[in-house]
Amino acid sequence: MRSTSSRPSGARPFRRRRSRRRSGGCGPTWSPSCTATPPRRSRSRSRRLAAVAHRHGALVYVDATASLGGNPFETDAWDLDVVTAGLQKCLSGPPGSAPITISEAAVAAIDARRSVEAGIREEGDAVSERPIASNYLDLAQIMDYWGPRRLNHHTEATSMLYAARECARVVLAEGRDAVIERHRIAGEAMAAGLQALGLTLFGDQSHKMTNVVAVEIPPGIGGDAVRASLLTDYGIEIGTSFGPLHGRVWRVGTMGVNARRDAVLTTLAALEQVLRRAGFPVSHPGAGVDAALARWDDDARRAAGVAS
């Protein structure tokens, strides 16, 4: 049995939005995207992508897991149809829950394949000739689960809903713009500090999020050994990458509760010591911390100038 009180007060896991579009007669297709780009570029790219997709009768799905909360994100202004995210990145929550927002056009596409499974079907329920193949991700039934009908699709992980609500409360208490700004300056300070240590940032820096810095592992330095020393000796974990970039880059996150001055400075200081022990030449002691602090000082001076 499922209690109707399992949803925390004020929780709205599904958000339907009004849409100016109608799907084409041939049925919609999906154009997936993600927002692992800087805010300005993400905004212009997302708008262009949505415009092209909609001209061809397609719907736009965006995965905002890594960026939501730490970067500007404008679902309605960018005319996106479906956006999903996670709690475990910039929102500082536990993994396992995926906030989602769905436009009316996307809801229509989902409803077109609505089919209630036999075990819970009632007289008059829809039975599609082409039902959604995955019961686990059958959004039509899941929307009925959260809707007035309360269709018994699954047993909700209620603790995750409370966690999601708390994540949203904390962000709104600080202020969305303030949270985004905190991620921006923390990311810039981390990047400046890593470069001052003599490390090379990976990739074109005009194509990056504010909350993750990828840095090349220096030749002759054991990437996994450095990560292990940071974790064992300092309780700090940085990531590597996957596929062809595994062992070539470290990924240093400045997101959520770690997008803070103390977290950035402590990480840079610890990484400097580990690199020195591994034989990597750092220009001068405290180079990374000095560069990060200078970046914060520059930002403070600019803010003071604007305020005056």
Question: Secondary-structure blueprint of this entry?
Answer:
Layout: E1 14-17, E2 30-34, H1 39-55, E3 59-63, E4 82-84, E5 100-103, H2 104-111, H3 139-146, H4 158-174, H5 176-196, E6 212-216, H6 223-234, E7 249-253, H7 261-277, H8 287-307
Parallel strand pairs: 1-5, 2-3, 3-4
Antiparallel strand pairs: 4-5, 6-7
Kindly describe this structure:
This protein has 308 residues and is of the alpha/beta class. The protein is 39% helix and 10% strand. The protein has helices at residues 39-55, 104-111, 139-146, 158-174, 176-196, 223-234, 261-277, 287-307; strands at 14-17, 30-34, 59-63, 82-84, 100-103, 212-216, 249-253. It has a five-stranded mixed β-sheet. Helix 5 (176-196) packs parallel to helix 7. The longest helix has 21 residues, at 176-196. It is elongated.
